[in-house]
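Hello,

Our lab assistant flagged a job as stuck in the queue for most of the afternoon. It eventually completed. Since we weren't sure the result was trustworthy after the delay, we are filing this so someone can double-check. Below is the sequence as submitted and the structure that was eventually returned. Let us know if re-running is recommended.
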Amino acid sequence: MIIIGIAGGTGSGKTTVVRKIVESLPESSVAVIPQDSYYNDQSHLPLEVRKLTNFDHPNAFEWSLLAQQIDQLRHGQAIEQPTYSYITCTRLQDTVHVEPRDVIIVEGIMALYDKELRDLMDLKIYVEAGADERLLRVIERDTAERGHPLEMLITKYRNVLKPMHDEFVEPTKQYADIIIPNSGDNGPAVEMMRAYIQGVVKEQKGHTILH
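-- returned structure --
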């Protein structure tokens, strides 16, 4: 098993990189664990308080549970991954059953932030894109998919996304084994990762299972 962390700012192209890695490997050989699933359970708080949550701050995550479940997968144990609702701003009762796989990918803006979690990873990747490009992608995504007005998105970027990125996300680049510029459009970098992952799993199993 190889455990991979993929971090990078909102709109950097992490999802594209993850998708290309998954597509390049055999079906059922990869499990993707979204960091967003591990936002704190806030069911004990009133909805008005929950709505004030800063989802781009490290304190919003239950790091201990995420590290614990990744460690369980590493030891061959299945997990019940939590699920989170942005509508109610708290954890849902439903969980997602995840079986151990040859490749486990932990993906999120701060996937490389927590040392206990980083220490469980065999490969740490930071996906990088310029601030202007990330802002444009956030605007395109949130206006199309979530119906958010442009003015609100710009305000959020200035007051939350940019300062949180500069303080907590960008500094985690120092922990990365690989930095991918130009996000998922960087074909050679994605191919290099695929070859590396294939080689590690092949070596661990002693025979080729990926192609």
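-- support follow-up --
The delay was a queue issue, not a problem with the job. The result is valid. The longest helix spans residues 150-169. The longest strand covers residues 90-98.
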